[in-house]
Structures are given as structure tokens and as C-alpha cells.
Design brief:
This protein is mainly alpha-helical and 291 residues long. The protein has two domains: 34 residues, no CATH class; 250 residues, no CATH class. 64% of the residues lie in helices and 5% in strands. The protein has a three-stranded mixed sheet, with no helix packed on it. A hairpin with a 6-residue loop joins strand 2 and strand 3.
């Protein structure tokens, strides 16, 4: 066997001296380096990692998967109390609890993907350093488990909306688009974070602080229109602002979002994912040595 690089693309070639096959492993470049077909071949492993993550998270808990719904309800209640009752911020004609719950719904998808996938390679170091499989499957599996949590929490809205006498509009058909873009943004950032955390363990300390800052710099417990007009342009540079406001509009029928900021958020999310994927593959070659 001839090995040309540690981040391989294998091809079988006839041996120069006879019919014996020779496996040549070559480095890949450009779009081919992402090798999505290889990720698809290992899809069973991806599902196994995601299921294992869910089981470990809720193992030996009295309420189990119910925490997926309980936590956003508690968070929405706190935001409704602080911003709705104490600060008395307007809620665009909808109950403040629902306003905060939908904001947390989108935020938890983004935050869950980023926080779980950010240190996932270090967590799975025993596998990464000994067994070959597409390393990108590890952060991807964390994103899948975050997506499952969000779908469960989304089902609660089927009960909450009739309770608050709110109906759905045709804009609800765009909800999967906003959730997909939120996950794309979280996954792109998590690819950067997970790859960097292999060489720089400081990332595991910086990431929670950065996520906490983003929570209050994004319209999760309040609306983007509450930000003073002077800072609106700077505030909307955060792609989460446009996506969370669009999600609220689709579910609750609040004020229509600024489509310019939504388009900007969509473009940034896709660029972050592509850039994160290339950065991950570029740094992947040294994962096994460093871990």
C-alpha cells in the first residue's frame, strides 16, 4: 500500500509488476475535498452517533426527553417576565411568552448545533485517532441531534397556538427554510470551532462566552425593532437577527421582516458553511496526530 497523504481519497490501480491491485491514496483539492459521497456512505455511522448523543444526554434523568420541551418553556417564561412585565417591551400584538418561545426555538437549534459540535472531535478523540471515517460526521451528528430536539419543541406550538387563539398563515410554509438556514449557520461555525479545538483547547473556554454574548446580541427575548435606530445597521450585521425575525413572522404573523436583512443572512449562512467545510478538511489531516 502506498500512502501519499493522511486525508485520503483512495483509488485502486493495477500493480506495475503484475495483476496485484495497488491502493493509492491521494490528497484531494477544491470541491472534491469535501467528498459528500463518502459522507453519504457513512450515513449509518452518522445516525448512530446522533442517537448515542441523545441517549447519553437524557440517560438517568427522571423526565428524559421532556427536558427538550421544559427548557424552552422555562426560558420563554423568564424572558416574558423580564422583557414583557419588567421592561414592558411591546410584543407586536402577540403574547410575549409565544414571542420568546419562538425566538428560543430558533436560537436553541443554532446554539445546540454550535455548542455540541464545537468540542465534538475532542470528545471523540479515542475514535478519531484510531479509526478511519469521515471526520466531518462527528460535528454533523451533533447537528442532527439538535435538529431532533427542535422538531420536538416545535410540536408544542401545535398546542400553544390554539390556546392563545392564534392561527397560522401561508407564511408558515417558510418555517423549514428559516430553520434550515439557522442550522446551516450553526453547522458552519461549528466546523471552524471543532477543527480549531483540536489544536487549541482555548476554543472550549471561549465558545460558551461567545454563545452567551450572541444570545443577548440577537432578537431572542425581544424584537429587533426594539434596538435603537442608530444601531440598527450594525445590529443587522448579525445574521441571526434576520433569520429569527423571519421565523417569528412565519409562525406568529408579526411584522414582516426586512427582506434585505433576510437575504443577507441567507448568503452569510451559506458562505459560512462552505468556508467552514473547506477549513475543516484543510485542518483534518493533522487531527489524528494532535489528538
Amino acid at each position: 500500500m502506498t500512502v501519499a497523504a493522511s486525508s485520503p481519497r483512495a483509488e485502486a490501480e493495477p500493480h506495475a509488476g503484475g495483476p496485484e491491485p495497488l491502493l493509492v491514496i491521494r490528497p484531494t483539492r477544491g470541491w472534491r475535498s469535501l467528498d459528500l459521497r463518502e459522507v453519504w456512505r457513512f450515513r449509518d455511522l452518522l445516525v448512530m452517533f446522533a442517537v448515542r448523543d441523545l441517549k447519553l444526554r437524557y440517560r438517568q434523568t427522571a423526565l428524559g426527553v421532556a427536558w427538550v420541551v421544559i427548557l424552552p418553556i422555562l426560558g420563554a417564561g423568564i424572558f416574558a417576565m423580564v422583557f414583557g412585565r419588567v421592561a414592558r417591551l411591546p410584543s407586536a400584538g402577540v403574547p410575549y411568552f409565544l414571542l420568546a418561545y419562538v425566538g428560543l426555538l430558533g436560537w436553541n437549534l443554532f446554539q445546540g448545533t454550535l455548542s455540541r459540535a464545537g468540542g465534538s472531535l475532542v470528545t471523540h478523540a479515542h475514535l478519531v485517532s484510531k479509526v478511519y471515517f469521515p471526520r466531518v460526521i462527528v460535528p454533523l451528528s451533533a447537528g442532527v441531534s439538535a435538529c431532533i430536539d427542535t422538531l420536538v419543541a416545535l410540536m408544542l406550538l401545535v398546542i400553544l397556538l390554539p390556546v392563545y387563539h392564534l392561527g397560522l398563515t401561508p407564511a408558515v410554509l417558510l418555517v423549514p427554510v428559516w430553520l434550515l438556514l439557522l442550522q446551516v449557520l450553526g453547522l458552519g461555525l461549528s466546523l471552524y470551532a471543532s477543527a480549531l479545538s483540536v489544536s487549541y483547547r482555548d476554543v472550549s473556554h471561549i465558545l460558551p462566552v461567545a454563545i452567551q454574548f450572541l444570545l443577548y446580541a440577537s432578537p431572542v427575548g425581544y424584537r429587533a425593532t426594539q434596538v435603537p435606530h442608530t444601531f440598527q445597521a450594525l445590529y443587522l450585521l448579525n445574521p441571526l437577527a434576520g433569520l429569527l425575525e423571519a421565523l417569528r413572522w412565519s409562525i406568529l404573523g408579526t411584522v414582516e421582516p426586512r427582506w434585505g436583512s433576510v437575504a443577507y443572512a441567507a448568503v452569510v449562512s451559506c458562505l459560512v458553511l462552505v468556508g467552514g467545510a473547506f477549513a475543516f478538511r484543510r485542518m483534518e489531516r493533522k487531527f489524528a496526530d494532535v489528538l
